[in-house]
Give the backbone structure.
Amino acid sequence: MNTLLSRQFWIPVAAIMVFLLLWEWLVWFNEWPNYKMASPTDLGPAFWKFKGLFLEYGWQTLWRTIAGLMLAVVFGVLIGMIMGFSRIMREGLYPLLVGFNAIPKATVVPVIALIFVGQDNFNTVLMAFMISFFPIAVSVSIGLSTLEPEYSDILRSLGASRFTIFWKIALPKTLPEFFGALKVSVTLAFIGTNLVEIIQPHGKGLGFLFDSGKISADYPLMFAVLIALAFLGIVLFYIVVVLEKIFAGWSERGS
Amino acid sequence: MSSSEFQIELSQVTHAYKTKDGPLPVLDALSLQMDKGTFTAVVGPSGCGKSTLTRLIAGLLIPDEGEVYLHGEKVKSPRSTVGMAFQNPVLLEWRTILENVLLPLEIVPNKLTKAEKEARGCELLSMVGLQGFENKKPSELSGGMRQRASLCRSIVHRPEVLILDEPFGALDAFTREDLWQIMHSIRVKENITTLLITHDLRECVFLADQIVVLSGRPATAQYVADGPLPMDRTLEDLYTPEATKLLAELRRQIQIAQGRNDEGEAA
């Protein structure tokens, strides 16, 4: 237990420390002023100075990202199921999905801002959703369509319905792929939220704080926002890791 | 009209798969009968339609022509009085061995309590030598052990008909012989009508009351023989003169089915 804790907690912490030290050293060695690149020691004061805003905006960014992600899970799984079970739907939907995913989402921000004028929360959640559902849909569809026929035959030969087969076999068997995709989607969803917050500022979220740092030439603040975003990303990622351990822990091979 | 005296009856079954190059005939006017409680083994060249046969009997496929009857009723869809096991044990990795074995009882309607189900599962697991592994996950078991658990799952709901599609095919020779003996003891104890698909001639001779050699595709019953071993049998019985003679004959029949002559060359 002790060694497990040290492996899973202290080693990542040490890695982050080493990273911060290297960063500090790089700035110090090149004698960069903090308008070129802020150093980790500039971040503490920046966080402290704007601590109220960081909490408020950080929360706004976090809840809208999570809302977008949950939508992505629901729609991604649904589309994945449709494509996983029906070959016709798979062949029809794939090019559409790939094309949609290939569009740079930054260009979509003004479009949805115009369609849903003033709906800041909705727009942000929508963008987080649009950017993050693709990996989930693809992984679920692949998981379902590659299910070996014997797996469904053991229940089908007993007269089980398609839904029972899905619920008892196909769904649990696809969970490892689903969580793999969800880990990718978590970080994508943050990108989506911040795209809207930065490109279409509406006075909310960490993206807006970043934008105001830029306008007021407060470079330590801008870097502090980046670090705050990274921190939120890490937290959400590890929440997914914990969920994966609970629901798909069986797929891990013992070391 | 079919008589209902047989547990499993195939009457003039013809079936073809639809491929993009047109229909591929796999079975041609195949007729088979299996009495209640008997064990039939089916052998034949690779790709001769043996697995199609299992899917037809299980009701997973409906034949193009001819009829399949289970206990006198025409098969139109899958039914819960059938158990199946495949070469791939297909255990669900997220369930324990006992939970895997009990899976059919979650589908087939029954009045068993949780305790009764578990007792039935544990009884079967100890019958195949897996006592103590009830709460292990499939990934902790060897290939032979997984196949034993798969066998338990196929009979936990007391099916009247058991269909085995090369269940021992991927196992090493010694594990396979162990499982033959386990299979035979199951069959003696549970009184199930069993159809075994296999490539192993010694396996047929050891296990079966009736051995059917299918011809090459499209397959029909080319040769039918009775199993020579007494009900109380051991592996040594495979080396009696009757068994050896039957093995030699089966081998000859397979060569004919493959379109070869006695010297093993293409005719």
Q: What stands out?
A: The mean pLDDT of chain A is 89. The longest helix of chain A spans residues 162-199.
